[in-house]
Amino acid sequence: MNEPATNNLPEKVDGLSVVGLCKSYPTPAEPLVVLRDVSLELGAGDSLAVIGPSGSGKSTLLNILGTLDRPTAGSVSFAGVAPFSLPPDELARFRAQRIGFVFQDHHLLPQCSAVENVLLPRLALGKSRPSDADRARELLARVGLSNRATHLPAELSGGERQRVAVARALMNGPSLLLADEPTGNLDARASESIGELLAQIAAETRAILIVVTHSAALAKRFARQMRMSEGKLAEDAP
User: Fold this and answer.
1) Can you spell out the DSSP letters for 163-187?
2) What's the predicted TM-score (pTM) here?
């Protein structure tokens, strides 16, 4: 009996590959170059912290990896898909299914309860199902907020609101989790708690986690650190 031909399969079917990424914006004088020849490879379960000063291109890189912005040059491939080759409606669905976002500002809807905010990403994929509410409550329990499901954002602390945002990012079971300064508005205790939570979730779900941060303490929680400087990305010195 012939053995299965496994040697031809890609090693990281859920991997992220970035090659020669560039981003510039036109100005009256000359183009403003934000990213310069950025390349990166990550596989399922990998975690990366990108550190660097304001204006170095960190958030621009995250926006492109999240398909919220398009590169000027270079390529991005995720799970074997080149997302920027997809039609707009397919790209939106790919983003909703495969990518989760956690921002510095939690962006919770103030009129919605915690569980309703967690449910929102499901609406991007169609009509909500009864089982989705159960999943939203399970995610709130996972981030330590099972007793806060019916609370409005105004009734939660800053750390609790960010935990709701983490649960919301996980609603559709993403393979890529992107966090842009997730502890930037939190005190030291809440920052440590969110950092620990993100690291645990990435390990448990095998999602690729990329965190942009100014915090060296937060960056050290993740397996790999890279530094962005003047639009270039390089491994950070130990």
Assistant:
1) HHHHHHHTTT--SEEEEESTTTTS-
2) 0.88
pLDDT for 11 equals 39
State the Rg of the chain over Cα.
19
In three-state secondary structure terms, 142 is: helix
SS3 assignment, position 19: strand
Instruction: Report whether 197 contacts 223 (CB < 8 A).
Output: no
CATH number of 16-235, picked from 3.40.50.150, 3.40.50.300, 3.40.50.10610, 3.60.15.10: 3.40.50.300
- Give the model confidence (pLDDT) of 26-72 as tens digits: 999 888 999 999 999 999 999 999 998 888 899 999 999 999 999 99
Contact, 48 vs 18, CB < 8 A?
A: no
DSSP 146: G
Rounded distance, CA 67 to CA 94, Å?
Answer: 9
